[in-house]
Amino acid sequence: MISVSHFHPFPFLRKEKMERKFLFLVASLCLLSGLNASNWNILNQKSKYGLKISLKNYCESWRMNVELNNIRDFKIVPEECAPYVGKYMTGTQYKVDSEGTIEECTIYLSTSCNFKKDGKDAWIFDIDDTLLSTVPYFKQHNFGGEQMNLTSLEEWMSYGKAAALKHSLSLFNDLKGRGIQIFLVSSRREILRSATIDNLVKVGFYGWASLHLRGKDDECKTVQQYKSEVRNKLMGNGYRIWGIVGDQWSSIQGLPFAKRTFKLPNSLYYVE
To answer: Is 38 exposed, middle or buried (0-12, 13-18, 19+ CB in 10 A)?
Structure first.
């Protein structure tokens, strides 16, 4: 307790001492309040438009702008937002959003696709966080709040234990039933081919036309460039790509375009 009630023979020294204690108390309170995430507020200020911003508001806005491709090329999820991203990616809302995307694919297939059924109607899937979930790996690494360690991630992938995303498996089987050729185009490296095939088949993904992984010549390219080149080769072979499903913008952007693209939610990492 700070006491100032007793008599001091030198008032100016007493005043100086009180000021030092007061500054120390203010600094301590600021530190303690900064550590209390539940009461976090951006500098205790309001937004440009007068709205009071909480940590949850800030992190939800950050996540949404990642999904909209407004925030790009981030290396890690902001440390203060990692718990919010983790809660979303492991919660009901992520499943609802993903199922909504797949439902739109199904509506598109049923209402807007005039398939020729000549063996050239095609669809492209990404793999990670499109068919197979890497969420368990990122759960061990602060939900994207740590710098990406590719060696560690590839080691985890090599075990072939990733679970299927059930909504995507449903669409995958629907496409097979319609006689559409399915191509898997992943940014995984060629060294993971065997583990990737084993993992996919084990959880129910089988019957695709081909699996495309990055070879040594592709490693110096951006993922978007590599995937665009794969699409170009497929179209050059006469395939009509009716749709692409991926969790990264780099999976669905770039020439040549598919007839439609569908993006699944993922704010754990960014692949350019």
So the answer is: exposed
Higher pLDDT, residue 250 or 8: 250
Q: How far is CA 194 from CA 155, 190, 200, 201, in A?
A: 13, 9, 10, 11
Chain segment 106-122, per-residue pLDDT in tens: 999 999 999 999 999 99
pTM attached to this predicted model: 0.82
Compute the distance between CA of residue 212 and CA of residue 228 in angstroms, rounded to an integer.
12
What DSSP assignment string belongs to 114-147?
----SS-EEEEE--BTTTB--HHHHHTTGGGTS-
Contact in structure between 179 and 121 (CB atoms under 8 Å): yes
117 phi-psi bin (left φ>0, alpha ψ -120 to 50, beta other):
left
Query: Which pLDDT belongs to residue 128?
Result: 98
Place of tokens 């990122």: 138
User: In what order do the strands lie in the sheet containing 240-246?
Assistant: 210-214, 181-189, 121-125, 240-246, 261-263
Instruction: Mark out the alpha helices in the chain (DSSP H runs).
Output: 11-35, 55-67, 82-89, 92-111, 135-139, 150-158, 166-177, 193-202, 223-236, 249-252
Question: Own/partner pairs for 251-259, CB < 8 Å, 24+ apart?
Answer: 251/126, 251/130, 251/185, 251/223, 251/224, 251/227, 253/224, 254/224, 254/225, 254/227, 254/228, 255/228, 256/228, 256/231, 256/232, 258/124, 258/231, 259/113
